[in-house]
Amino acid sequence: MTGQVAVGLEQPHIVIVGSGFAGFHCAWRLSASLRRHRARATITMISPIDYLLYTPLLPEVAGGVIDPRLVAIPLADTLPRVRLVRGYVDAVDIAARTLAFRDQEATTRQLGWDRLVLTPGSITRLHDIPGLADNARGLKSIAQALYLRDHILEQFELARADTDPDRAAARRTVVVVGSSYSGTELIGQLCAMAQTAARRFGFAPEDLRLILVERSGRMMPEIGPTLAARAERQLRGRGVQIRTGVTLTNVAPDHVDLSDGTRIGTCTVAWVAGVSASPLIHTLGLDTLHGRLRVEPDLHVPDTTGVFAAGDAAAVPDLTTSGDITAPTAQHAIRQGAVLADNVMATLTGAAARPYRHRNLGTVVDLGPGFAVANPLNVQLSGHLAKAVTRGYHLYAIPRAGNRWAVGMAYLADLMFSRQLVSLGLAPSSIARFAASETFEFADNQSARCNPTTNRPPNERTKTMTPQQQSDSADNWPLPAEPKVLVFDVNETLIDFESMTPLFERVLGDGRALREWLGHLIMYSMTATLSGLYVDYFTLGPGLLKMVGDIHGVTISEKDAALIKEGMLTMPAHPDVKKGLTLLRDKGFRLVTLTNSPPTPGGPTPLEHAGLKEFFEDHQYSIEACRVYKPAAAVYHYVAQEEGVPPSSCMMVAAHVWDTVGAQAAGYSSALITRPGNAPLHVPGLPQPNVIVADLEALGHELVGPGVNA
Ligand SMILES: Cc1cc2nc3c(=O)[nH]c(=O)nc-3n(C[C@H](O)[C@H](O)[C@H](O)COP(=O)(O)OP(=O)(O)OC[C@H]3O[C@@H](n4cnc5c(N)ncnc54)[C@H](O)[C@@H]3O)c2cc1C
Asked: What average pLDDT does the structure give for the chain?
């Protein structure tokens, strides 16, 4: 964004849509491949979430065995050389080589690409059944898994106090629709959780009802009749009712109607009856097969140049069976991701593309305490051995050591202790709805409400990323969103620390001791935070003056020590500040401050002294609220939260690199103001400021205001 930061993308731009199994494994392999070949290309991954969701463990999240955090593999950790953009792609212009996406605040932006990898996966397939979308929930996201767990526990709790016996029975009844491996795993896990909960709430075993509904005549076709029969026996033995050959005809808040005319009272319906390709696929105007985007065996999309697709969204020919397409499984998506990477790479190096070919290695299905079925390499296993194979497989397949360890610990805890039954209430019903959770149609999106631009017509909300935004910063630091809130550091950034030089000249005989004292102030504030302690700046400052005095062999009087606090409160503004702030305010930015100094209740604040209060009014924040000093991430998150915006909407404006680094690590963008005595820090691995300017006036000229097309 500044003359000092690189401009324009001069290397091929590969954009991957979706951070699921196919997209993740493509990005992973592609970035390694680029390094190995010393090829230059920018990889951008665009996804509404900042993690890879390890879906096979969602039933265990719903069943309360695994903490939801553990199934989210953070992209920033695992794909350090990939630019990550949070957004939901709504449209792709194949001819113009651009795509349009919505960010978290529903602002539409455009992104250009040279190679496009489409891996947006699938959504739950909903049938035209009255009440289904409103009253049932799926299992495709963390929100949905968490919701199911919380909701069942809440319903049990309510059942205890409900005086209407029919409604109480409905609250104790769980219906799962769909008996593929994921539906069967879900009912197995919910059954185990419900039985533990029932003991806690004092219900008799027969008071609980868990019902699995399957339209076709058979369960788990993926695993073969022998293992499916064993799984069915196991579930029935635990009291699960299995109703095959029927489906739902109506879903109400307190009951469902089945196609055989029966009515089941229930307040919990989980719909896990198949998937269909992401809605994005149907907007492309390209050829589809069974609703999935048709691709060649090498995953290239026909009639396009440089466009590839794979995973659940694509109809990938299965070369191991004639005329079929590969099943929508993670097993295929992972391996297709690797082929995508190789074939995108081939377009850069001129190598030949290779076709996708993979023979099914088997399926593992965890059915709760002490039981699983699995057919690795066609060996039929059930019971404890299958359980060990299933859990061992997941621990092997989770692509991040930290998550793997944590899941291993959760498994251990599951063996040693009873399930932890808590209803966190973090996933309200609205967020777990199919549309909100799977296609990000947030009717009640908090952050969207906070964005002043979201009430404008859609065309006014469209922004194109500037070349600078798309450009490769020094170390591939994640691409920041266009800032809306400018968060100003106060000391030295807005007000002039050098004004205290005469004090240091007088008491220490050398004005340069000011910088020495300031260095100590920064170091000891960070020392306090890293040690878990807190003393405020106005206590730290005089103490440090005495310490610097001791170092210089000068005794500092109490009176002089007290003067430092007065000096810190009464510094004047830098001469460029008022003009710069006026410019930025006029461009529509929200201006706030975040200072390491404590508030001064009753007395005038440093900003009032400096005549700057009018720019900030009620938007002056102190780290005192968190009792940790900058650059701790907590304080930057605190400000974003108070302002009702995500960190990516905030830009830290500071004269100190430690502040810009901390803010960027917390998800902000940053601007460095190179006040005298301050300069950029060019160290690989640390984020570079997005803007580097000499003063606030220059910043005002540099930034384009919110709502203005860049
Ligand atoms: C509960 C459950 C259990 C499962 N268990 C197993 C199992 O045990 N074994 C197995 O092999 N398979 C299993 N699967 C299937 C497996 O999860 C999928 O086949 C696999 O995730 C498909 O990978 P993908 O990359 O195509 O899509 P996904 O993994 O679904 O990823 C799609 C990504 O694209 C993003 N996205 C979607 N739309 C857009 C858009 N418009 N713009 C930008 N980003 C978008 C999504 O947020 C997501 O990050 C299970 C699925 C579920 C739901």
From this structure: 89
